């Protein structure tokens, strides 16, 4: 198999598949009808319910607008059924202020492409309307890359880490909002890398525009047997994971991407924080452009095969 992956034929096939995907009219709602309802009314009812739970932030209909604009938002990318309350806390805060015109949406490239960042120019379809890609900003960011950020564009097709935040974005802000979809690969942010820095500096230049929101769809720890650990989950494990998460998140709340990355990697990322590069990138993209963040919610969900996934909602103005 490894030999095949290195053959010119494989490279040609990859190019053909990406070209076919790129030619599509839009990126379809891959998870509609499975992870969330495809019917718009049923979807709105489900998403509204997460705001109204006992520990939720409150109904969207009761929000009184205020002038403070949210500039950076970190929410989960776990399915709504397990992380809906955290999504609600994050998007409830977003709904308090002026609606952004463009959202730079960072996600996690679970398919592990070679590139540090993978973009797409495709609009994103949702049951609540189509989110238009901000192609002018996408092209400016692509010009800052010394790799082809569209070479593995097909990894966007089934990636939930952008789709789930995007659907909630359409629910709260409506579909008349543009997005810049960026999937983050597994790069080493502790090493000097001019290519990555050039790209993130270009992202930061875009966020100098106060109408641009940076949104990260990022989960935190993945701990337990289903993720390769040999222990069972108990209250003591959950408590230790939360303590480590809170230590890391303190640096994210302070808007310090380098310390966030260093803190997670202190134990070689033993908790498998899958949003490591995604949150780092969102913090770098807003560095010097935002104030201190606020932890709106923290939670965890059990994996049916034995383990937990943790996540949070963070907002900064």
Please mark out the parts with pLDDT under 50 across 5 or more consecutive residues, or reply none. Answer: 1-6
Radius of gyration: 19 Å
| Major sheet details | 10 strands, mixed
What spatial form do the alpha-carbon principal axes imply? Answer: globular
Structure annotation, total helices = 10
Q: What is the H/E order? A: HHHEHEEEEHHEHEEHHHEE
Estimate percent helicity.
Answer: 25-40%
Structural class: alpha/beta
Tally the beta strands: 10
What is the percentage of strand-forming residues?
Answer: 15-25%
Summed over residues and divided by their number, the pLDDT gives a mean of 94
Terminal residue distance: 48 Å
Describe this structure in words.
This protein starts with a helix and ends with a strand. It has helices spanning 2-5, 8-22, 40-51, 80-96, 135-143, 160-173, 194-207, 235-253, 257-264, 276-286, and strands at 72-75, 102-108, 117-119, 124-126, 129-133, 178-184, 212-217, 222-223, 293-303, 307-316. Helices cover 39% and strands 18% of the residues. The longest helix has 19 residues, at 235-253. It contains ten helices and ten strands. The model is unreliable at 1-6 (pLDDT under 50). The chain is an alpha/beta fold and 317 residues long. Helix 3 (40-51) crosses helix 4, helix 7 packs across helix 10 (276-286) and helix 9 packs antiparallel against helix 10.
């Amino acid at each position: 198999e490894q030999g095949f992956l290195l053959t010119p034929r494989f490279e040609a096939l990859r190019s053909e598949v990406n070209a076919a995907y790129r030619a599509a009219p839009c990126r379809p709602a891959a998870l509609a009808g499975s992870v969330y309802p495809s019917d718009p009314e049923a979807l709105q009812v489900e998403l509204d319910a997460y705001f109204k739970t006992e520990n939720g932030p409150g109904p969207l209909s009761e929000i009184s607008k205020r002038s403070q604009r949210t500039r950076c938002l970190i929410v989960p990318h776990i399915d709504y059924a397990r992380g809906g309350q955290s999504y609600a806390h994050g998007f409830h805060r977003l709904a308090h202020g002026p609606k952004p015109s463009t959202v730079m949406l960072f996600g996690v490239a679970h398919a592990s492409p070679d590139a540090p960042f993978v973009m797409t120019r495709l609009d994103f379809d949702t049951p609540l309307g189509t989110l238009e890609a901000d192609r002018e900003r996408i092209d400016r960011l692509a010009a800052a890359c010394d790799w082809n950020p569209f070479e593995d564009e097909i990894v966007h097709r089934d990636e939930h880490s952008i789709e789930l935040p995007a659907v909630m974005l359409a629910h709260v802000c409506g579909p008349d909002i543009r997005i810049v979809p960026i999937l983050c690969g597994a790069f080493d942010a502790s090493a000097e890398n001019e290519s990555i820095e050039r790209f993130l500096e270009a992202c930061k230049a875009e966020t100098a525009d106060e109408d641009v929101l940076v949104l990260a769809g990022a989960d935190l720890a993945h701990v337990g047997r289903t993720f390769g650990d040999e222990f069972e989950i108990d209250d003591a494990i959950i408590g230790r994971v939360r303590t480590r998460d809170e230590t890391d998140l303190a640096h994210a709340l302070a808007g310090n991407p380098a310390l966030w990355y260093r803190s997670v990697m202190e134990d070689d990322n033993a908790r498998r924080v899958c949003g490591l590069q995604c949150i780092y990138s969102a913090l770098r993209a807003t560095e010097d452009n935002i104030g201190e963040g606020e932890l709106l919610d923290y939670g965890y969900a059990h994996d049916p095969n034995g383990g937990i996934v943790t996540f949070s909602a963070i907002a900064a103005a």
